[in-house]
Amino acid sequence: MLKRKRPPSKYAKKFRRKKGLTWHFPRLELKPVLTLIVAAIAILLAGGGIYFLFSPSFPAISLQGRVYPLVPQRLSIQTLSESLLAILFLSAGVGGCYLSWSGLQARIGHRPSMVKTVVGMALLASAITATYMLAILKLG
After folding, report:
1. E-assigned strands of the chain?
2. C-alpha–C-alpha distance, residues 39 and 45, integer Å
3. Mean per-residue pLDDT, 16-27
4. CA distances (Å), origin 114, targets 8, 57, 73, 94, 107
5. pTM, two decimal places
6. 67: in domain
7. Which residues contact 101 (CB under 8 A, 6 or more apart)?
8. pLDDT tens string 99-124
């Protein structure tokens, strides 16, 4: 006759190794990562990042311990500081759009969603104004 296995004690049940509970890398959702990559490429292209990467440019000149900003002879030349400022302002505008959109997705009248919407609109307005001022300084 076959012997029956004894049922495990409560301590054996408590401390035994559970099957199937191993550590895995967290899964990344593809849609937000892809959206972030596309937005970063669009900001880089719109801010003049390709010109910044492939054209030798100097942001400033240092003479006798003083730093002078570089003013190009032609207005069609884009300086490094202009590229970086344009990229910064464009990314602030995209961030403001995202904050406004995510604030509008929540319940109406919910305080955190109202704060997100107002901060996003303010960030978007300041980014548009700063980009416009950068264009005015460049053109005129």
Report:
1. 60-63, 66-69
2. 10
3. 68
4. 57, 43, 48, 18, 9
5. 0.66
6. no
7. 120
8. 999 888 887 778 888 899 999 999 99
